[in-house]
Amino acid sequence: MIKTPYLLFLGDAPDQLAAKVAQGIKDWRPENAVGQFRMDGCGADVGIQDMTLEEAKAAGAQTLVIGVANRGGVISDAWKEVLLQAIDIGYDLASGLHNLLRDEADLVAAAEAKGAQLHDVRVPSVEYLIANGKKRTGKRCLAVGTDCSVGKMYTGMAMDAEMRKRGMKSTFRPTGQTGILITGEGVPLDAVVADFMAGAVEYLTPDNDEDHWDHIEGQGSLFHVSYSGVTMALVHGGQPDALVLAHEPTRAHMRGLPDYQQPDLVDLRDMALALAKVANPTCQVIGISVNTQHLSDDEFEGYLAKVEEEMGLPTVDPFRQGAGRLVDALAAL
Amino acid sequence: MIKTPYLLFLGDAPDQLAAKVAQGIKDWRPENAVGQFRMDGCGADVGIQDMTLEEAKAAGAQTLVIGVANRGGVISDAWKEVLLQAIDIGYDLASGLHNLLRDEADLVAAAEAKGAQLHDVRVPSVEYLIANGKKRTGKRCLAVGTDCSVGKMYTGMAMDAEMRKRGMKSTFRPTGQTGILITGEGVPLDAVVADFMAGAVEYLTPDNDEDHWDHIEGQGSLFHVSYSGVTMALVHGGQPDALVLAHEPTRAHMRGLPDYQQPDLVDLRDMALALAKVANPTCQVIGISVNTQHLSDDEFEGYLAKVEEEMGLPTVDPFRQGAGRLVDALAAL
Prior knowledge:
homodimer; alpha/beta; Rossmann fold; 2 domains; five-stranded parallel beta sheet; 11 strands; DgcN-like_C (chains A, B); P-loop_NTPase (chains A, B); DgcN-like_N (chains A, B)
């Protein structure tokens, strides 16, 4: 578990997109960030107060979170200087970079000297067990997509936020590095060894109050041949009570797979539900989340209405419309 | 790739079952084994010539294969003595043990001094890529089970042996440590990191002649919640042209999961075929392989006939009847 609150390190991010982890923290857990740290030439700004390491420390920050991708996969000397200073004045570090903090000898030495933690959230920090399939208490919701990167994390985050706003018991359960950095804990599922994937999901979503909902972050797609095994582990390890179908309607082909087309929503519904019922016979599909970012203001409502009529399920874009109707559907279960 | 032929190390195996890896090599690749090495008190015998390390070396053996499980997960002093002698006179070592040869400092030092290879086949030795889903040349067959441990490896081995006997082009492609030790190469799929599972299967079964069949060793089951993600990676990374349904009809529940029942063969057929068609739209289910070891001589033929009539597919126990009818079905595709 990563200690909060954070100071968000934006480094020399060339543009806003490079700082999407920091932006996610600011959007979904603003209480986790006391400020942002930008270096000369930084082209990103997540819209919170600029602070020095010392100012943020005085404001209570415990961890410097690298909220930006690094260029060329190298931790530059300029970054290194800041990271070493941060350790020196008492920060932990957290990173989702491909190259690991723990592989940098100077950071490791400094952290050992100061008793600081280095969190590489791409790497599992727990020895997960093989899944036992036992029914757990509490409720679970999982978004499954027609493709990768169609808004599954956003959907879960938005439903969790809406439930908490309503005073319902709810936890977002991250399975990727962005989500883990946002909330401070989770399972980097794509880095878990095959035999332990479903067990890692069981670990992620333990027994809970009967009226508590876990929103498990989805990964991949049952129809994406590169990652479908990871998705399967979520469906079976998560034993969801509710599925949300996630879709992006303007893709020419499956992400990264030019020869593959997205399934239609009926195929996704039938496949995902049949598989989910293996682990939880009472599972239901409760709604559809569409990422309409490439549809105009004139188009998107018509599209959603058409899907809703065809599928007979509440169909929303949670970014444009909020997740209220999806939460209504969960609450009605 | 493990150098053949082998000397099979049976150690102090308490009984025949403990030597199932050695037995598998003797059954399926007898040409890979020049002899067996048994210690005092060994209760196993795979029925080939007993040899000393020196005799087997003189007969051409290149690798000492640990064909037996070790008690308590510890490489005993008695074993260690033999393994060190083997390295000293020029053997490589190969093992599927949970505890690794490479974690034994004395073996590592001896191997380095002699230039010997230590093969721990439970651990991937290749950095696999993320699957690209590209259609590969050649044909592939995959057994998918109603449960774990229902005879999928045996089915693939038997079909491969039958095809080679007929002069057809065929390769068995192991995905578990027993199969890897038997053939000398393969992918230990359950130890691969989640993101690379399907890519590892693509690596395992590359482009080949159009009339060549890969028999990919199945793992887990789409209906076994602990391992279904691994199975999914085989279905999508393997892009099989043909599926064989594998079943064991006397299970009271799914292996290791007392609260889960096996699916029926119709459910397995429909689910596996629908998923396989994502990667290979021309995939067909060509037959059924039943492990009838718990049915009597009076019972098993009646059972197979009943399944064959219900399912409309060639249904055999390849152990009792050979895999000829399954190969006929492949050849007819």
